[in-house]
Amino acid sequence: MIPFIPADTNPAMIMMVAGALMVFFGHQGRGIIGLIAVVLSGWQLFNLGVGPMGDAQVYGTGEILGYEFMPLRLDKLSVIFAIVFHSAAFLNVIYGWQSATKVEASMGIVYAGSAVGGALAGDLLTLFIFWEIAALSSVFIVWAGGGHAAFKAGMRYLVIQVMSGLLLFAGIVLHLARGGSSEFGAFELVGEAGVDPVAALILFAFGIKACFPLLHTWLQDSYPKASGVGAVMLSAFTTKLAIYTLARGFAGTDILIPIGVVMTAFPVFFALIENDLRKVLSYSLNNQLGFMVCAIGIGTELAINGAAAHAFVHITYKALLFMGMGAVMQQAGTARATELGGLHKSMPWTTAFTIVGAMSISAFPLFSGFVAKSMITVAAGEEHLLLVYIMLLFASAGVLEHSGIKIPYFAFFAHDRFAPSLRNGVPRPKEAPLSMLIAMGIAAFLCLLVGFYPPILYGLLPYETDYHAYTAEHVATQMQLLLFAIFAFMLLVKFKLYPAEVRSQNLDVDWFWRVPGRKALMATVAGVASVWHTVWGGLKGLSGSVVSSLGTLHGPGGVLSRYWTVGFTALFTAAVLAVVLITAFLN
């Protein structure tokens, strides 16, 4: 118990209040407040306790307008996400200790708190509130990247995030209007009557933030525009909160299996040809989300455990990779592969930590990715989903190519862009600041700890499990896959078949709404403006005619302004009276 905090306080509120207060302090003060807030919030989470799946610990329940509110529900599914969100917030505070702006430091803690609140929300309306707070706080982190490009990307990001919130709210209202429970539980997408449009609406809202295919480009558009510190913050919360909501609301929904498989596959090709290494990581993030979505679609206890475990380790190693590229960008001024290389000579610690992250995301044995990702592939195999199993193996090899090899190779090795003959007087970048190295060191330690001792992760999973990652079959299969992928990379480089790193702008599906979509929008605006001008011109001409006619009648010399004789006035009055009397008689 924390003496000065009520026993049933939501841990999210501790971080969010602290984030609001941080704007009044300097660098050191913001860092200290951030650490204290994360520790207090984590301690409060620990004190509340956790129930097993289906038997949650519930706090602060009430009823408003006939609907039950359950702002704090703790079971093993919600708590594992809340724990890793706390871990990510802790790493963010340390990483940005010296470099985070006031906006990033403050909004980063609010953002983390909203993710924790969303994971612990027991009812749909509470979820919606935290869903929107996460959207609004995170857009400030994008804007903090600075420059016109970051502002425009932030505006596009905000539109997409608000759209997701509006769809979620519409789905909640329709669900409640037809007598559904306000508790956030499982939805049935397909019933006896076919597809449920309300459940489909809510799934679509979740899918936007989970980066379903064709809905994914907001991630690649916004994350690379943020600062090095901001991108680390963004990588941890929004998409993983969406994964949690899918696991809570749509576990076992078959359509998620092909959606997840496509998500694992298509980003591989974009990542291989991308020059901006932070954008490579954004595509890689999309790829890793696909594993989780596919596991949720499979829906067995092993698969849900795999999705939760993969989300847990992914937040850590993806944060580590974004930290490494953030440090490179801060020290070298760029994260483009064509402008990097040879940094291992002056940034050895950053190089080593990034390699740990690369080996973790590639699922090498003894690294965290292996003990989680193998659960998903095994779950697919146990359900006899052969094509899904093969596609997941292909995607795993692709991860090694673009994140396991490309990121460290082109950033720290390859051609030395800072050699005396090439750098044109530009000094070789120095090692990252101490706070960044400490954060990267902690993240690397967690990747190795989970890899060496999986029970520390398996004990947190939603369902009890006796799964063992380190069997001869699992290790042999994964090593064969990884060695084959490494050999393929060496052959491609040797025979100059590997996609060359060139300064270019690669097109994704967002081209359709950025180019023809924008033209269609502008044409629509021009058409509406033309119609408006026509209508307004007609109304203006009509009103002018009416005013002119009134002037003719009432103006000097007009019919109604002339002096009339008494006889004419009496006759006119009698006529009006006759009309009134006849009308009254007829009625």
Automatic annotation (TrEMBL):
GO terms for molecular function: oxidoreductase activity. One of its GO terms (cellular component) is plasma membrane. It is a multi-pass membrane protein. Residues 121-394 form the NADH:quinone oxidoreductase/Mrp antiporter transmembrane domain. This is Na(+)/H(+) antiporter subunit D. InterPro entries: ComplexI-like_HydComp (IPR052175), ND/Mrp_TM (IPR001750). The keyword Cytoplasm does not apply. It comes from the Bacteria. It is found in: Cell membrane; Membrane. Pfam families: Proton_antipo_M. The keyword Cell membrane applies. Keywords: Cell membrane, Membrane, Oxidoreductase, Transmembrane, Transmembrane helix.
